[in-house]
Amino acid sequence: MAPSPADQTTDQATSASGALDVDVVIVGAGAAGLHAVHRLRLAGFSVRVLESADDIGGTWYWNRYPGARVDIPSVDYMYSFDPEWHRDWQWSEKYATRPEILRYFNHIADKFDLRRELQFDTRVEAACWDERAAQWRVSTNRGDISCRYLVMATGCLSIPKEPDIDGIDRFRGEVLFTNRWPHDEVDFTGKRVAVIGTGSSGIQTIPHVAAQASELVVFQRTPNFSMPAHNGPLSQEKLAELADETVYREAARYSRGGVPQERSITPTFSVPAEERAQRYERAWQIGELLETLNVFADVMTNPAANHELAEFVRSKIRATVADPQTAELLCPKTYPIGAKRICLDTDYYATFNRPNVTLVDLRQDPLRSLTEDGIDTVTESFAFDVIVFATGFDAVTGAIVAVDITGRDGHTLRQQWATGPSTYLGLTTNGFPNLFLITGPGSPSVLSNMMVSIEQHVDMVAELLTGLRADGFDTIEPTAVAEAGWMQHVRDCADITLFPLADSWYVGANIPGKPRTFLPYAAGVDFYRVACDEVLARDFLGFRRSGPAGESCTDGVVRRLQPDVQMVLEQVAALDPPALESLSPAQAREAVGEAAAIRPPGPDVGEIVDGLFPGAAGELDYRLYRPSSPGPHPVLVYFHGGGWVLGDASSDDPLCRDLCVRTDAVVVSADYRHAPEDRFPAAIEDGFAAVRWAADNAEQLGGVPGRLLVGGWSAGGGIAAAACQLARDAGAPAIIGQALLAPVTDTVTNRTSHAENGEGYDLDTSLMRWFLDQYSDPADRTDPRIAPLRAADLTGLPPAVVVTCDFDVLRDEGAAYADALAAAGVPTEHIRARGHTHCSLTMVDLVISGAAVREEFAAAVRRLARAPQFS
Ligand code: NAP
Question: What pTM value is reported for the model?
C-alpha cells in the first residue's frame, strides 16, 4: 500500500535549508483548504495541505454537537467549481445537518482526488519568512516544510474561546464543548444538564438536549435573536431557480451576501405599516437569514427601521414562550437585530415551554463558578451531571495568530496586529510577503455565505500566483499605502451600519483583551468582488511584485469614495439619466424636482413656516425651519444650491431640516431669482436683500437680534460668501459667521479638482460650465459677487466654516477660499469631507456617512453662533 502523506511526513517535511519542498503550503483542510488544493493544483502549483485533525471538514469536523446545521441553504453552501454536482449529489434538506455536509466534503475530496495532497495530524506551529531565499519555512509538530507561498485556510470560527469561568477543573461531572464535541454520540437521557451560552451553537444544541435530559438549565448572559429555519425538503421553487446553474452561481457571486438575491432598495418607512408587517411575516415564514436582513434596505443602517424589525421578532418570542417572564428574558433588547448573527433554530423558543427546562439570566444572577457538583451563581447552587459550554470562538483572527508567523525583518504578525488586524483586501498584509489569509479580517467572510467568499479568495490567490509566474516574479506583498487605504474603507463600511454597536464576536468583544475592531467587510460580497476585480485589472494595484524579473508596483488605494456615496453613484449610473446640461433649463428643473420627490424627508423640526420677503426686484419665497427647543435662536440665512439655475426655497429641504436640528438655529432658506431668466447679478442682489431683511426682522423670525449667520451650499454657498463681502463693504448688517458647504468661489474650470473629478461624480465640469453660461457672461466672471475668491481684500469678513469634498470639482476653489480667508486673518475652519462628492453631503438619510460631516459642520456653526460677544 502506498504510504499516505501523513506516513511520509517526517521525511518529506524536513528539508535542507534553501530547498523548496512545495510551491504552496495550505494550512487547514476545511472548505477553504479543499478548494485551494483543487484550484492551485489545476493552476500547476505543487501544494501540501497541513491539517491538525485526522480528517477533512474543518468547522464541520469539530462542531459535532447535536443539532448542528448550516444556516445558509445547502444548495448555496456548496462549491460552484462542480457545476455538474446534481449528477452525483443531492441535498436531502433545505439546511443540511453536519454529517451530511461532512459527507459532501468527502464526496468532493474523492471526486476531485484531493486527498493526495492532504497531511493530517499535523499542527502548524510557526512560519518564518526567509528573505534571502524568498520562501516560507513552516514548522509543525511533525517537522519543517518550506514553500514559496503560504495560504492560511484556517477558518473564521475555529479557535475555541478559552473558558473564562472559574472551576472547570473542579467539576466532577462531564464537561463538553460544542466546538470540540466527542466523536461518539453523547446520551443525555435521564441526566441533569447545564448549557452555558445562547449563541447559534447553544440555540441549536438546546432543543436536542432538552428532549433527552431529565433536567436542562440554560445559562444565558445575552439573549440572541433567533428565527425558525422552517427546514424541510428542497422546495420546487429553489430547484427551478437552479435550472441554469451558471446564471444562479454568478448571481450569488454578485449579491450582497453570497446568495442570489436582489438588494432591497426600499427604505422601511417608505411603505405603510400594514405592508411592513406583511413583509416581516413573509421573511419570518421563509426562514432565511440573508432574506430577513434584506427585508428593507435600511435594516442595518437606520436605528428606527432596525428597531421595528427587532420588535417584530420580539413579538414572535412573546407569542411562543408561555411564561411571560421567561419570554422577556429571551427577548434581546440591548443591541440592534442583525448586529450579532441572527440564529436559525428548530423549536428553540418553544423548548422553554417544556417542564424540564429552566432559564437562568446571568445578568440578574451572575455566574460565580463551577463547583464539584455543578454551578454556583451569586444566589443559587445548581447540581448537574453534564455541563455544556457553547461559549464561542476567538473569531476571524484567532486561528491566524495561533500560528507564530514571522515576516520581514523579524516582525511577527501577533505584534503587527496587537492593536487590531490590518490587511489589504482581507487577504494579504504588509510585511508578510506571499502570505494569504482566506476570508481574513477586512473581507466579507462571516457576513456572507462562506462558500462563495472562500471560492472568491482562493480564485484571487490563484490569479495572483499565476500572474507572478507569468511576469517572472516570485514575491508579492501589499504596500503600506494600499493597506491603510483598504482598512480605512473597511472602517468606513462598518461605520455606516449598526453592526459595531453590539458587543459581538464581530468586534472581538467576546474575548477579554482583544482589541475592538469590526472584523469583516460590511459592504457586501458584490462590492468586495468588484474591488478585487479592479485591483487585478489595474495591474495588481496596491501590490509590490518582485523576483528574478525585477520589481513592479502600481501603488494606490482601490476604494476612496465613501461606500454609500459609491452605491448611490452606481445606482444613478445604472438608471443612465440624461446629463442635465443636455436638457433645457425647464427640463433640468423638472428632472431635479422628480428626483427630490423620492428622497428621504429628513428629520422633523419644531416648525416650518413658508413666507415672502422683499427681494431686490420683488417678493420672493422663503421657508423657515424652527428648532423644537425654546427660542429665541440664532438665525442662519441659507441659500440653496443648483448652479443659479435650479432649485427654490424648499429644494434643499432635508438638508435645511438637518441643519436646523443640528445647529439649533432658525434656518431661513431664502430664494433668489434664477438664470437664464434672470442672469448675474440677480441672484446675489436677492441674496444680499435676504440677509438685510433677516437682520431687520430677526425678532419676528424668532431670532436673537445680532446673532445672524449666512450660509449655503454650492452656488448658494457662493452667494452666502459674496453677501458677507457686500455686508462688510456696506458696514451692515452685522454677520457673526459664514457657513459655506462646497461653495462656488471662482469661475474657472481648470483647477486640479476639475481634472480629477470632472466626470463621473455628481457635478461634472461640463455641467458647471453650463451653469456658468446660463448665469453669466465671460466678462462678469472676475466679479467677486460671482467669484468671491477674486475679491481684492478678504479682511474683516465674518469667521467662517468651509466644507470641501474630496470628489468635487469645486474642491480646490473652496479650499483656496478657506486658505485666503485664513491668510486675511479671518478665523476659518476648513472641513475636508473625505470620500464625498459635491452632492453627497446633502443626501440626508440616504448617504449615512454624510451625517458625521454635517455634524462637524453644525458644531462649527454652533461655535460661531456662540461667539463671545454674544454669550
Ligand atoms: P457565540 O455566538 O459567540 O455565543 C457564545 C455564547 O456564550 C454567548 O451567548 C455568550 O454570551 C456566551 N458566553 C461566552 N462566555 C461566557 C461566560 N463566561 N459566561 C456566560 N456566558 C458566556 O458562539 P457560537 O454560538 O458558537 O456561535 C458563533 C458563530 O458560529 C455564530 O454566530 C455563527 O456564525 C457560527 N455558527 C453557525 C451555526 C450555524 O447555524 N451554521 C451554528 C453554530 C455557530 P455573551 O453574548 O453575553 O458573550
Answer: 0.95
The cell for 526 is 458584490
Are residues 622 and 612 in contact, defined by beta-carbon separation less than 8 angstroms?
yes
Ligand 1 centroid to Cα of residue 375, in Å, is 19
Grid coordinates representing 143 are 517537522
Protein residue whose Cα sits closest to atom 46 of ligand 1: 222
Residues 6+ apart with CB under 8 A from 233: 92, 93, 94
Probe ligand 1: pick from 63, 221, 226, 231, max atoms within 8 Å of CB?
221
CA 219 to CA 648: how far, in whole Å? 60
Q: What pLDDT, on the 0 to 100 scale, is given for residue 629?
A: 97
Residue 14 CA: distances (Å) to CA of 18, 144, 313, 783: 12, 5, 56, 79
Q: Characterize the bridge pairing of strands 215-220 and 703-713.
A: unpaired
| β 47-50/22-27 pair status | parallel
Q: Helix 245-253 and helix 525-537: axis angle, to 10°?
A: 90
Query: Residues lining ligand 1, CB < 6 A?
Result: 69-71, 157, 164-165, 196-202, 204, 221-222, 341, 344, 362, 367, 390-393, 446, 505, 510
> Which residue out of 69, 70, 200, 292 has the highest number of ligand 1 atoms within 8 Å of its CB and is therefore the one to mutate?
200
DSSP-derived 3-state class of residue 131: coil
To the nearest 10 degrees (0 to 180), the angle between helices 525-537 and 450-471 is: 0
Residues of the chain with pLDDT under 50: 1-17, 870-871
- Cβ 794 vs Cβ 824: under 8 Å: yes
Q: Report the phi/psi class of residue 508: left, alpha or beta, with left for phi > 0 and alpha for psi in -120 to 50.
A: left
Closest residue by CA, ligand 1 atom 25: 199
**Ligand 1 atom nearest 505 alpha carbon:** 3
